[in-house]
Each structure stands twice: as structure tokens, then as C-alpha cells.
Amino acid sequence: MRLLIFLILLTLLVSACGHVQTPTAELNVAQVKEVTTDPDAAVWRDVPLHISKMIPQDLVDPRVMEPSTSEVQVKAITDGTQIAFRLEWIDPTQNDVPGPKHFLDGCAVQIPARIDPNVPAPQMGEAGKTVEIAFWRADWQAIVDGRATDDIRTIYPNATVDHYPSQARSLEGNPQALAEAAARYSPARAVGNRRGGPREQPVEDMLAEGPGTLSPAADTTSKGKGIKTKTGWSVVIARQVPAGFSPGTPTQSAFAVWEAAHGEVGARKMRTGWVPMILK
Amino acid sequence: MARVNNWQLGREMSYWYPESRPEKQFAAVFDTNKCIACQTCTLACKTTWTSGKGQEYMLWNNVETKPYGFYPLAWDLNLLEMLDGQQWSERDGKTVYEGSTIFESAPAGERVLGWRPSDEDYAYPNVGEDDCSGGVDGGASLEGTHDMAWFYYLARICNHCTYPACLASCPRGSIYKRPEDGIVLVDQGRCRGYQECVRGCPYKKVFFNPITSTSEKCIACFPKIEQGLAPQCFENCIGKIRMAGFLNTPDKAQADNPLDYLVHIKKVALPLFPQFGLEPNVYYIPPIHVPTTFTRQMFGPGVDKAVEVYRNAPNDPDLTSLLGLFGSTAQITRRWKRVGDKAIGMDEHGKELVSVPFREPVHIRPAYDKLYQITRTNCP
């Protein structure tokens, strides 16, 4: 009887400890029937785990001088068309509201634009050797999850506003005039810069050929979803499979994490080096 | 870092990019002695440029009461404390800044020495600045002199600096200085809202828009500048404290250029915190009633001479006439001259834009009006 109780307790203890995996040195991409953007989906459970050590971005100023996020846990799956990465890291605070001196939690996946033995520099590529970056940001996730946009009261609930030209009573019934008035006082939107505002996905696709060259891709086709966990973030970024990526042709991936509470934004970030990415 | 010449410091200094001066540099002179803080400039700017969502707290133009007013809070004191006291000296007949600029003081990992205001720092523009700091008992009166019985109004816009710290701070090169007129702009298509420019600008004249997630700043009303017109905050200034124009470097100063005359020849208008090292292009005629122990820190070592020159203006018809041209036309006065008791403002081709008498006729009316057989009291 005592042995039976011991075995039951042991079973409970093991299951309580969760699913322990031995991390792999490279990122092994598991083949699945269908890619998901849900970080909690069951499909992730048995996918090989890779743990990447992170270091501060140290090529250009400004930079973080005190390291923050020490590692990122990565899993990857593919259905042959899409490849999804799940990034998990420790971050005790949730920073998803923009404002002066308020930054935003985020993460990114970087892949060489071309599979080539002559790999681009891991810090955002280099001239003539483009890298593709899919970037997820916590405020974009909040917007996709339903937070109102374009309302200052979302950020400052007690704010009062006398008047916006884009809501002028004299323009009521004339949507085009109202839209023009809004654009007049929103120069970034007027030129197509979509850093803020309504969006379909919490992810943006970008290209870079070295630090400071980051620019949006023609279209964002990547998708994603991020969930704040008790200890940090669990984020899935799903993008198109890199051209030529196959069991016989490995490539690389690299990751970056921004911990907003640590003042991380733009070049102030923690990053990995290139991680070999293999399709089993 | 490159070595560049900063004439306001009397020496070379380190800057993120090599020296590259524009074809002509937009600049301005503000006469602090005339400002009454009516905030008409602030509203002219606000209604023209920052009435949109995410711009609610932004004042590209603001007027604050010195010494206790700030927008954002302690914008100048914070950086002065970080610079920790610096010195000017006389060297070979030249006044030279011996201290470090914000570029030369940049800590490891940073492009400039800077700090970031929080949203609360922007929350109370002008609140309490002109109020008594405590209760006043009934019957109380001010007796004798008081060291701090002074204040003045400081109107501020972007300085469109020759060496902008916002531009140097941006790791993406999203900020540029127009080669045709030196106006500093944020490329709204390229900006990703890192707020490095907000941190780097010592004058705190770049603002983060939380709705568009990009940074925005004073554009010197460049659509007007391109048409030869002064910016909104200049045209609408009812105190006529402002003059817009283009400034040459001291070695190319032209006496018939109003700004060159005030800045380089008369040296009556001074840069705001030249020790920061940005070679700012808005110049101030310092307040003449304020102890220069205070204004010397704010406007540099030329402040005593500037006050002396300004006080002597009644005996200086040229200076008096030019001061009378301030706010006299909506157009940018590129050249000027004095003809008798009149100041003539001209465009760049010498065509007259405005003619202003600087000595108005004085009529002294007798107290007793014979026509109506009444006595009137003349008010001074």
C-alpha cells in the first residue's frame, strides 16, 4: 500500500514538474500538418527545444550596457508553406502602452533572405546581404486583441479633449473631409507609416542590410500571437518558409528581444547570434 | 565622431557627422524684453500643426516663465546638472568654452548626453509659474530689494541647430537637416518611434506621438518659409518680439542682414545654452532686468555686453530702427537699412517690404481744452 501511494505521489510530482526537454544545440524545425500561431497549442509540446543565449546589441550606439534577457527558448514548426517560431523569455512586466518614456515589449525573428554559405552578418545583415525580419510588438498585440486605437483615453483614461479638427461638426456628413482633416494632423499616417493605429496582425515584415537600414517589406504576410505568461512572454511568429529551405539545405535564424521596462527600444536590445536551423 | 567648428564655443568640437552647413540657415531673434507670455504664438502653432490625436500634449512652441517655469519639467536643469558646471575662458582675444558639450560628454553606449522626460513632465505647462509660491499675510508688503524679485518669459521653438542632437541621436538616420535652409525635420515615413531624438534634444523640442508611434517636432512652418513668409508663431506674435531670417557664420556676416547685424555685429542676441554644443539658431536678446549671474548660464558669456548694448539702444538709431522692424511684416526681412527716422525692411533682392518709423511723433496736449472748455487729466 505504501509503495502504491509513493508511486502515485511520484507520478503526480513528475507531471507537476511539467514536460522536461533536453535542449538541442541547433534549431530543429518539426514538420506538422498545419502551422499554428497559438502559443498554447498542443502541437508545441513535443517539438525540439532550442535555448539561445542572448547578448546586448553591441555593434552600434545606442546600446544597453547592462544585459537583461539572458536567454530565449525557441521552438519551430513548419507545414511546408509556413514556418512558425515560438519564442519564450522571462519578463516580469507587461509593457504594451506607448507614450513618452514608455517603451514596448517585443521580439523578432531574423533569417537570411537567401540561403547561401556566405552568411550575412548576424546583426541585421550587411550591404548586399539582405536579412528578412519579422517583428512582433506588445502594443500591436493589444490592438489586435481588441484594445481601442486612436483614442488618447486608451493611454490616459482621464484625458479630456476640447476638439479635434477631424471631428469638426462643420464637416459632419462628409467622411472624405473628416479623413483629410485627420491626415493633416497625422503626418506619419499620411505618408503610410503604420507604426501605430488599427492593424490586422501584431507582426510586421521588414528587410535590412545592416544596422540603421531597417525598412518595411512591401507587404506583411507574417502572422503572430503573443501571450503574457506569469513569468514572461510566449510569442509565435509565423512567416513563409525561406526559399530553398529543405532537409538537405539548412539555413540560419537569429532572435532579438526588447524588454521595455529595461529601456529597450530600437538598437537597445538583446540579441542572439546565428542559430543553425535544420529541417528534419 | 568628426571634428567640427562651433563658432558659438570659439573652438572645434566633436560631432557625430562631419560639418555640413546648409546653403542658408533659417534663424531667428527673440526679444525677451518684449514678451508678455500671451501665448498667442503657442496657440497659432497648436492650431496649425498639433491639433491631432496623439498631439494633445505637444507644444512645438511654448512660452515659459523663468526661472521657475519649464516645459517639460526641468528640461534645462536636468541637463545642466548632468554637465555639472563648466567654464568659459578668454584665449587669444577669443571667448572659448572650456567645458564639454553633450556630444563630448556622451557616456559609453550613448550618442549624446541626454535624458528622457516622462509623460508627467509634460503635464503642467505654465501651471503655477506666475503664482506666488506661498500665502501672503494681510498687510504684507515687499520691503527693500529681493534677490529673486524678477522673472521673464522665455518663448521657445526648435532651434534648428547647426549640430542637432536629435539628428545625431537617431540610429536610423530618420532626422535630416534641409540643405536649402537648415530646417531640421523628422522623416515621418522613416521614423520608428524609438524616442532617441526625444532623449537627445537638450531643448526637449522633439515629441513622441503615442497614437502614430512616431516622433514629431517644429518644422519652422517650412511651407511658409518656402514662400518667403515668416512662420505662424512669428506672424501672430502680438508683442512683435520675433524676427525670422537667415543667419550667416560670423566670418560672412553682412551688416544689411538683420540677423547678422543683431547676432554678429551688435552681439545683442545670444544663443540659448550654447554650452550644450548644438549651435542653436534661435537667438535671444536677454532680459535686461535679470541678474546676469543667471542669464550668463542661459545665454553664455556675452550676456553682459548684450544687456549693455540693448540698454544703449535709445542712443543707437540703427539698432533702434532694426528693433522696430520686428513683427512689422508677415514676410521674411532678408535685408534692411535705416533712412532717417525710418527702418526699411527688404526682400533678398532689395525690394522694399515695409517702412517703419522708429520715432513716433509726440503730441503734448494741454490739460485745458479751449475748444470744449474742459480740463482733461493726462495719463502718463
List keywords for this structure.
heterodimer; A: alpha+beta; Immunoglobulin-like; 14-stranded mixed β-sheet; B: 380 residues; Alpha-Beta Plaits; 4-stranded mixed β-sheet; 19 strands; globular
Task: Please describe what this structure looks like.
The complex is a heterodimer of chains A (280) and B (380). Chain A is an alpha+beta fold and 280 residues long. Chain A contains 5 helices and 14 strands. In chain A, strands 1, 2, 3, 4, 5, 6, 7, 8, 9, 10, 11, 12, 13 and 14 form a 14-stranded mixed β-sheet that branches. In chain A, β4 and β5 form a beta hairpin. Chain B has 380 residues and is an alpha+beta fold. Chain B is built from 10 helices and 19 strands. Chain B has helices at 40-49, 75-83, 165-169, 196-200, 222-225, 232-235, 258-265, 292-299, 303-311, 317-325; strands at residues 2-6, 11-15, 25-31, 62-66, 88-91, 94-97, 152-156, 175-177, 184-186, 206-209, 214-217, 242-247, 270-271, 282-285, 335-339, 342-346, 352-357, 368-369, 374-375. In chain B, a hairpin with a 2-residue loop joins β15 and β16 (342-346). Chain B is globular and about 80 Å long. Chain B starts with a strand and ends in a 5-residue tail after the last strand. The chains are: A alpha+beta (280), B alpha+beta (380). Chain A binds chain B through residues 60-65, 97-103, 139, 149-152, 155-156, 159, 161, 163-166, 182, 184-193, 195-197, 211-212, 214-215, 265-267, and chain B through 49-56, 108-111, 116-119, 121-122, 169, 171-173, 188-196, 198, 207-214, 216.
